[in-house]
Amino acid sequence: MDEPRIKVYGSATEITVAANAAGLRGLAERLVSLADPELRGGYHEHLESGINLEDGSISLILERDDTL
């Protein structure tokens, strides 16, 4: 299996999240985790360039917001 690779980039009007198949599965798993009924609004995860994201990516925060 390939190593997950995710890149996030964008402009003032749109954001692109590009990933290989393993990266997309990893993002999907993170999103499913945020939907866990035992978690509550405000729980979030930070994804950072060079750590969880490809170098040159902009930071990404995945947040659960139960007021939406």
Overall description:
The chain has one helix at 21-34; strands at residues 6-10, 15-19, 44-47, 60-63. 6% of the residues are buried. A hairpin with a 4-residue loop joins strand 1 and strand 2 (15-19). Strands 1-2 form a two-stranded antiparallel ribbon. A two-stranded antiparallel ribbon has the order 3-4. The longest helix is centred in the middle third of the chain and has 14 residues, at 21-34. 21% of the residues lie in helices and 26% in strands. It is of the alpha+beta class.
Short structural summary:
This protein is 21% helix and 26% strand.
Strand and helix layout:
Elements: E1 6-10, E2 15-19, H1 21-34, E3 44-47, E4 60-63
Antiparallel strand pairs: 1-2, 3-4
